[in-house]
Amino acid sequence: MKKMFIAVSVCLLSMFQSLGQIDKVEDIKKLLQTSNKDTVAWIHAGFLNIGMNEGFLHNWAAGGEVASFAVNGIFNGRLDRLYHRDIWSNNLDLSYGLTYNYSTSFIPRKTDDRIDFTSKYGHRIDSSKFLFFTTLFNFKSQFTKGYDYSLPKWDSTPTSKFFSPAYFTIALGLEYRKGSDISFFLSPIAGRLTVVDKYYTSKSAEGAYGVPYNKNAFGQFGAYFSGRYVYNINKNMMYKTRLDLYSNYLAKDTKDSVGNVVKRDNPGNISVLFDNLLAWKISRFVSLAFGATFMYDNNVPYSKTYIDKAGKTVDKNEPASGLGWLQVKQMFTLGVAYKF
């Protein structure tokens, strides 16, 4: 899977580099930040960072992991097609990370895994410089199986895998767009489809990821907001942030076969994605990246305990259990990078 991730990143870099840009693209970007005048051009930008960490200890008085190795990669790519008053924009975020430790027999454990693709097509309104009628498509999933490593025998009970879950969102609305780095999209008409293998939904009366028991798909209809902002602090440092909100108009409590409520839900339980990335290009091929992602989804509950094989309730061995249902991912990468 690491090889596949690297191969995908290399292919994307090659594709982006092969696209012929017109002269003075930077001038076009600056022009679009002040006035979305009619023009025809391809505009692209991206960031690839692959970091590695290795350690070895022998008779080390301070103690520690005897041997360890970690690798992770981040790819953020953007490709926009400007054609007079129409804009087709595409954003792709990929990340993957593994760690190998002597104490776990060098069995790899996943530290990061993400596929997130958004494509939008907008038509500028005549009387506005920055307002567009826009159609949006978003896809989210992951590359490989996921596990809860705080559980004993964790490798026998995967919690997720590629396309399980997979989220598809299609929305129609208005977008405020200023250049290529500022976008605020709001849709009162947004459909979302969650797809999950029955293996996961058959394990609990509540199903999994919002999909009912023993089903493999669940549809929602609601409102969607997506805001993106890219700030180039200087020519070597970039900050990128994103906020996605989704409210399901059709949300309601879920009951089991005898009428007991197994999950409480309503349109006020808004799904939240707040994504942040700070990238600093230290030298030509060395870069530092710091990222933090926060998510909340009423369909992804959290429990501080689990039931062991003897039927006893046991506390999970997890230091961040106080965060409850909030999903948090933080990463720091220092490695080889390429920015375009």
Helix percentage: under 10%
What's the mean pLDDT score? 86
Helix-strand category: mainly beta
Gross morphology: flat
Classify the beta-strand content into a percent band.
over 45%
What spatial order of strands do you see in the largest sheet? 1-2-3-4-5-6-7-8-9-12-13-16
Span between termini? 25 Å
Give the number of helices.
Answer: 3
The ordered string of helix (H) and strand (E) elements is HHEEEEEEEHEEEEEEEEE
The figure for the number of domains is 1
Record field, number of beta strands: 16
Please outline the major beta sheet.
Answer: 12 strands, antiparallel, barrel
Radius of gyration: 22 Å
Low-confidence stretches: 4-24
Q: How do the helices and strands line up, and which of them pair or pack?
A:
Elements: H1 2-18, H2 25-34, E1 40-56, E2 67-83, E3 86-101, E4 109-124, E5 131-141, E6 166-178, E7 182-195, H3 198-201, E8 217-234, E9 237-248, E10 254-255, E11 261-263, E12 271-281, E13 286-296, E14 305-307, E15 313-315, E16 327-339
Antiparallel strand pairs: 1-2, 1-16, 2-3, 3-4, 4-5, 5-6, 6-7, 7-8, 8-9, 9-12, 10-11, 12-13, 13-16, 14-15
Q: How does this model look, in words?
A:
- The protein is mainly beta.
- It has one domain.
- The chain is built from three helices and 16 strands.
- Strands 1-2-3-4-5-6-7-8-9-12-13-16 form a twelve-stranded antiparallel beta barrel. It has a two-stranded antiparallel ribbon with strand order 10-11. A two-stranded antiparallel sheet has the order 14-15.
- β8 and β9 form a beta hairpin.
- The radius of gyration is 22 Å and the shape is flat.
- The two termini are about 25 Å apart.
- About 5% of the residues have low confidence.
